[in-house]
UniProtKB/TrEMBL annotation, chain A:
Alphabetical list of InterPro entries matching this protein: Bact_solute-bd_prot1, SBP
Signal sequence extent: none
Domain of life: Bacteria
Protein name in UniProt: Extracellular solute-binding protein
Gene3D superfamilies linked: Periplasmic binding protein-like II
Pfam families, per database record: SBP_bac_1
Automatic annotation (TrEMBL), chain B:
Cell compartment(s), UniProt: Cell membrane
Domain of life of the organism encoding this protein: Bacteria
Protein name as it appears in the record: Sugar ABC transporter permease
Species, as recorded: Cohnella thailandensis
InterPro entries, sorted: ABC_transporter_permease, MetI-like, MetI-like_sf
Transmembrane segments: 7-34, 70-92, 104-124, 152-177, 198-219, 258-279
ABC transmembrane type-1 domain boundaries: 66-279
Keywords: Cell membrane, Membrane, Transmembrane, Transmembrane helix, Transport
């Protein structure tokens, strides 16, 4: 009986070892496969970079090209790039972090709610350490606003790559057909909306799924009212969302919904690609959007489109013709643990230097991305409508979107869901404010 | 010789058992542990005993997601399984085109649920295929905001799941029906039994063992359903179309509450286990009819 048990145990250990050796073999294979073009050279350092620049992203081609150039110039670095589309990168990184497998360098979203856990969890490197190590990239190459808008506890834990400016456009052909003038005030917007709806046209292509793009529009309204900008700034210190400006913005969205200013199904028209569909199809007369949807717009529609400032709300304190909602979105984060590894540090600095070089930013700008780094944009290489957007939004001040100021991930998740409900007309403005306010208050330490 | 045979069996069973242990049993225990912690997936977990479960009890959104899940279970028992069984029974009697129909009904099963979700989100869009078709047939009054009306959205996200899963149950039932000797059906026919009578008096009783498996698969599958709802609405608006696993994902990957999300997953596993035990206990000894 004892012999049998020993035999069984032996077999189990043997099988276990067999499986593990099998797994080890695969790992080596993958690593060698990832060596890519420069096979045969000695790969002394392996670094991983997680990003969203693949698939249908406009920057894919440029990024691949630059990546290959970096690999060729640094045969001693085994650079493994890990692509996840859009928001899926958040999911991937959370799994990686939970399993202690955080990539060495990765793209992430700027904003208190996104970055706070990475700072508190000691994952993100204080970029002062990177700037001290880099020979070519300096903090001064970004504007002061870039650092103040993305700082956590006054320190930089990321380097902004992409910035954004929202804009409002309209289909001139539709407006001309119904002899309408583009609206400048909320009263005009309501009149225009009524006439467009009577003719079967959706006034404004706008939806909310996971709060996109609805929350940008919410911010564009809320910031016009007294205290709207300050209320956002104070979210992480006073934990209050039930302010007058936010309440007014919620009421206006609810009223617009009732007036049928948006597509009827705001969830189906939510998220970035679906939000431009009614406009692209000529079924919507106006579109409020951001630069990353430029590549999704049809050329024949942009040829008929003109840009206008955001509509001025009744009782607005801030003139929407002087500013736009935007800010720093996609940024570069360095894994602190990896940076402190003497074997990896030089490779990480070399790769970050390459990613943050003027050359790389200029190449990205050529694809329609608004670069966060201060550099002269060459509009000649851009699509004509993208160049038009860049020129139109250039003089505007940029105010941050409210969501980026939420104090944590829990309140952000409630904000996202409640924003969808507000746009869908499922909840009343006061319910929206109460729900988010409760979540924001719940973040208070 | 007998001892060698035992050794041989253990040798071949060990890898699978170890994999099952490593990738299924161990993570279950980890989930149970994390469900009793406050954990954001970045910092170290802090033990909080049963506080997550106490919070769940008071969480109205969790109960909404559970109610939505229960709805899917009811759909599984009342639509998916009966329709799959009827289709399999009807196809069994088809002489020409058997392989074609079998393939057609099974085809949705091999498509990735996320792809189906994306496909249906286009179908449900305001100017999508569904509303256009209704308009084409003069049924414009039936047009709806399929994804933003909380009274309808649950039907909208459930439909693709029902459509896709019917194919799986259909194939299981078809295989089981093909195992029933033809003579049994022929005898019934000679005795003058109608198709309906044959179905209820021969097919259903003789498939009872398979039916039990399909019910357990269907109910436990409904409890963990995620892909379609996430792809179509992300559980929204609010949590109107969130099933329990979607809500778990919202909490884990949306708000970094991995401890809380683990507690939700533990309750899902608990419900599935409880259902299986009760179901098997209740129906144990009720074997399929044999002629």
């Amino acid at each position: 009986m004892v012999t049998k048990k020993i035999q069984a145990a032996f077999i189990l250990i043997f099988a276990f070892g067999f499986i593990l050796s099998g797994c080890g073999g695969n790992g080596q294979k993958n690593e060698s496969a990832s060596s890519g073009a420069s096979e045969g050279s000695t790969k002394s350092v392996k670094i991983r970079f997680a990003h969203t620049w693949g698939g249908t992203d406009g920057k894919t081609g440029v990024f691949k090209e630059k990546l290959e150039a970096f690999r060729a110039a640094h045969p001693e670095i085994n650079l493994v790039d890990e692509f996840s589309p859009g928001d899926e990168l958040k999911t991937k990184l959370k799994v990686d972090m939970a399993s202690g497998n955080t990539p060495d360098v990765f793209l992430y979203w700027a904003g208190e709610s996104y970055m706070r856990p990475l700072v508190d969890g000691d994952v993100a490197l204080n970029m002062a350490d990177y700037f001290a190590a880099s020979q070519s990239v300096k903090k001064e190459q970004w504007s002061d606003g870039a650092w103040s808008d993305t700082a956590i506890d006054g320190e930089a834990y990321l380097i902004p790559i992409e910035t954004s400016k929202s804009f409002l456009m309209y289909n001139k052909e539709i407006f001309d057909k119904y002899q309408l003038q583009p609206p400048t005030t909320y009263e005009e917007f309501k009149e225009v909306s009524k006439k467009l709806r009577e003719n079967g046209i959706i006034p404004l292509s706008m939806g909310s799924k996971g709060s996109n793009p609805g929350h940008w529009f919410f911010s564009a309204i809320a910031t016009q009212f007294a205290g709207g900008v300050e209320d956002g700034e104070k979210l992480s210190t006073e934990y209050k969302f039930d302010t007058e400006a936010f309440t007014k913005a919620a009421e206006i969205i609810s009223e617009m919904k009732a007036l049928k200013a948006f597509p009827d199904d705001t969830v189906a028209s939510g998220d970035w690609a679906p939000s431009v569909v009614p406009y692209n199809e000529g079924k919507a007369a106006m579109l409020f959007t951001l630069p990353w949807t430029l590549s999704m717009l049809n050329k024949d529609i942009t040829a008929k489109s003109e840009l206008i400032p955001m509509i001025r709300m009744d009782g607005a304190e801030k003139d929407p013709a002087t500013y736009t909602i935007g800010g720093y979105t996609m940024s570069l984060v360095i894994n602190k643990k990896s940076f402190e590894d003497p074997d990896k540090k030089a490779a990480i600095v070399a790769f970050a230097d390459s990613l943050l070089s003027d050359e790389m930013f200029a190449a990205f700008a050529g694809t329609g991305m608004m670069p966060a780094k201060t550099l002269e944009a060459n509009l000649d290489t851009l699509d004509p409508f993208a160049a038009k957007v860049f020129e139109f939004t250039a003089p505007f001040n940029v105010l941050p979107f409210t969501k980026s100021k939420l104090p944590g991930a829990k309140s952000t998740e409630v904000f996202n869901r409640s924003m969808d409900e507000l746009f869908a007309g499922v909840i009343k403005p006061e319910q929206f404010i109460a729900k988010v306010n409760e979540a924001v208050a719940g973040e208070k330490p | 010789m007998k001892q060698n045979r035992g050794l041989f069996s253990v040798l071949f069973l060990a890898p699978a058992s170890l994999l099952f242990l490593l990738f299924f049993i161990v993570p279950v225990f980890f989930s149970v542990y994390y469900s009793m912690t406050e954990w954001d997936a970045v910092s170290k977990p802090e033990f909080s005993a049963f506080s997550n479960f106490a919070s769940l009890w008071r969480d109205a959104d969790y109960w909404t997601s559970m109610r939505n899940t229960l709805w899917l279970v009811v759909m599984t028992l009342t639509i998916k399984i009966p329709v799959a069984l009827i289709l399999a029974y009807l196809l069994l009697r088809v002489k020409r085109g058997f392989k074609f129909f079998r393939t057609v009904y099974f085809l949705p099963v091999v498509i990735a649920p996320m792809a189906i979700g994306l496909m249906f989100s286009l179908i449900y869009s305001e100017s999508g295929m569904l509303n256009q078709t209704l308009d084409l047939f003069g049924l414009s009054f039936l047009q709806q905001n399929w994804l933003s009306d909380p009274d309808i959205v649950l039907f909208a996200v459930s439909a693709p799941q029902v459509w896709q899963n019917i194919g799986l149950f259909f194939v299981i039932f078809l295989a089981a029906l093909q195992g029933i000797p033809n003579e049994t059906f022929e005898s019934a026919e000679i005795d003058g039994a109608s198709s309906t009578r044959t179905f209820f008096s021969i097919a259903v009783p003789m498939l009872w063992d398979v039916m039990q498996v399909v019910i357990i698969l269907g109910v436990t599958g409904a409890l963990k359903m995620f892909d379609h709802a996430w792809a179509i609405t992300q559980g929204g608006p609010g949590v109107s179309s969130a099933f329990a696993s979607v809500y778990m994902f919202m909490k884990g990957f949306g708000s970094y509450e991995f401890g809380y999300a683990s507690a939700i997953s533990v309750t899902i596993a608990g419900y599935a286990l409880a259902f299986t035990i009760v179901f098997k206990k209740f129906f144990s000894g009720k074997d399929s009819l044999e002629y």
